[in-house]
Amino acid sequence: MASTALSAWPRTSPRTLPVAEGLVLTVVALLIRLPHFGDPSFMIDEQFYLVAGDQLLHGHLPFTEVWDRKPIGLFLIYAVAAAFGSGAIIAYQIIATLCASATAWVIARIARPMAGTIAGCVAGLLYLLWIELAEGGGGQSAIFYNLPVALAGWCVLRAGGMREEDAVRRSAFAAMVLTGIAIQIKYTVVFEGMFFGLMLAWQTLVRLPIGAALRRISLLAATALAPTALVFAFYAAIGQANAFIFANFTSIFLRSPADAAEMPYRIEMFALRLVPFLVCIAASLWQVRMRSDLAAARWRVFMIGWCGAALIGIFGIGTLYSHYILPAFVPLTIAAAPIFRRPTSGPVLAFFLAWMPAVTLHWPDFARTERHRAEIAALTALIPPEVKTGCMQMFDGPPILYWTSHACTLTRFIFPDHLSAANEERAIGVDPVIELRRVLAQRPAAITISDQDIRPPDVRTFAVMRAALARDYVLAGKAPHDGRDIEVWVPRRLHAPQV
Length: 499
Hints:
- This protein has helices at residues 2-6, 17-33, 44-57, 72-82, 88-115, 117-133, 141-160, 165-183, 190-207, 210-237, 241-254, 263-289, 294-317, 329-336, 345-358, 366-382, 387-390, 400-405, 417-420, 432-441, 459-472, and strands at residues 392-394, 446-450, 473-481, 484-491.
- The protein is 64% helix and 5% strand.
- A hairpin with a 2-residue loop joins strand 3 and strand 4.
- It folds into two domains: 24-358, no CATH class; 366-494, no CATH class.
- The protein is built from 21 helices and four strands.
- The chain is mainly alpha-helical.
């Protein structure tokens, strides 16, 4: 009976399966994301990443000249996109789309042994839909690092089922290389990486004598840490080891916690996105439990641990921003896949999980992209050409304006929140008031600020900024963006009286 249930759906030829799955998932990813292509302000984070990538392309290093907490790997990805010049926005969106579809393909491949061909492909499709629901339709960091994490998980799972020692070793080290790469895109990968490492350590201890096992385990750990160690070595070599350590590690613990008033809503949103998967996963694990072979038991244990590690990673951060759930969708969709194969309940559950994100996407919404293009064009037109040499300081607004106006910068803190948000006051390594006064003393050729705040403001820096604007600047104009008016202020000496 169990074997009948598990083999109810048809199979595809093993020779054509990988290519067919890849083509289907790539086409679906392109169709889902096509309305976003060319949107210059899809999400504020990726706007900044593109600006930072462009700065890196021009020799301005992260942490020392462009400050943020993300690892350098993310900015290298965006530097590749920035190399396409005026096509950089679409370039990073295409790279993100290919990463998303490749991740969905890996999800299908991992799920296939327990779920079958069609149910595995359904899991990949669900990944593409659910990341849209959590701000993953563009180039959030998780869209890039989910691919090496998924590949690493696949390698670890395959290593557990291999008999040839050379194949096991190659798969284990490939998993740690991939984990190390993912960590240099975002550090929260470390939780999943630790789980992968523990699984490999256990497999190694079972296979090898204790001495050889400990040597391999040490090498595996060193392999995962090697990319981060190499980046640190580079910064140490240029005398910026402290800057690297503070930005990448220390500052994370100095940032104030999220606004307590928003947490009930964020928890509710996370619950709405997790509970449907957890219900399906419970049913799936019971389905797999009906199989008595070792492979099924290994798969079940591995997926429970992987889901747990991913959830620790997102809840351990504490702030629970919507996109923080993106990495969890990789193991969640895989672990849920076996239940989709049941001939009765499977299609119903798959449809339900697909329907939940699909009804919120308003697809295809090309109007949003066109509106954002018009808004950014209007704001860019308000920025004087003098910003190319006199620079600009964004106190609030879309960071992509640095890129569209070709403005130079006067501080490494160019992401608006770093000098204007209350939760960053003690977390950037300098007194934001002193830094803002230093910037204002250089008389930037343009300053942007909003008519309303979207996060708790730093009242000290806002007072300094408002005073400077009233004293030395004049409002050049304002334009709407995402429901707010963004104001562009220029020095009085640059303001031409209107006739």
